[in-house]
TrEMBL record:
This is ABC transporter substrate-binding protein. The keyword Protease does not apply. It comes from the Bacteria. Keywords: Signal.
Amino acid sequence: MMSTSVRFARRLALVALTSLATFTAPLALAQGYPTKAITLVVPFAAGGPTDIVARTLAGVMTKSLGQTVVVENRAGAGGTLAAGHVMRAAPDGYTYLIHHNGMATAPALYRKLPYNPQTDFEHVSQVIDVPMTLLGRKDLPANNFPELLAYMKAQGDKINLAHAGLGAVSHLCGMVLRQAVGVDMTTVPYQGTGPAFQALLGGQVDILCDQTTQTTPHIKAGTVKFFGVTTASRIKVLPDAPTLAEQGLKGFEVVVWHGIYAPKNTPKDATEKFAAALRAALKDPTVVQRMTELGAEFVPDAKLTPEGLRSWLKQETERWGPVIKSAGVYAD
């Protein structure tokens, strides 16, 4: 019959082995990572600007990671549906979120936000910045910004201002524009910038703020009216295009920034390997050429870190919170 001391020793050894397995499981996962496809969730419709960035990067990252990076579109609720999905996903290194400024604006926009952007995710890296452009339908009477300003003041709420949904950067840009020009235009929400831009091309709406990743080809082709860029200074892809600030809207600056997030407690080795593949992709000649053609701007290496993203997210949250609250815009 087994003695009490022997039984105790065996139980102690079993507890030790169980604890060791629990401790080493994430490490073992990371060492063999990745062994299957990785999902990169885009919180907006396919064909939109963020989707373009995601798919451009995913193709190159697939090669360096040795596993397919699958882009999955989960549009709705200003990106909060996708963010909530990723927050609840298994923290195994196989689900990531690419999101823009919406991660910083959601706390002010949503009364019942089901996650905290600062604490409920692993912050992986910033990605890329994209300037915004102010556009009008091709048959809009105005041909430059001074004429557009006069037209907006004359038409008032008859002007239809499209945006990609509550909290989208096109929504924020339109909000700042309305405040800057003092015109209470009628806003028309869409499920993503892709559908909003198609509405502009089809003449169903009058004006739209949208990213250069989507608008540059159309601006050069003349299929839309172009009134200026929303950056502090002129951009390389449209060097002759004036900024809205230099045309009278002092301090007007809205730039789309993107970040990569993972579920909380995703193994650090996994996120670091994903981030390394991202950094390599951002230097790939194909990606550089494609993003440069579309007007995207590459961020400094210091921002391509968890700390860089975390700090920037905090800064942007503090910037946009008062703007949104003063506008009285919110959703349940």
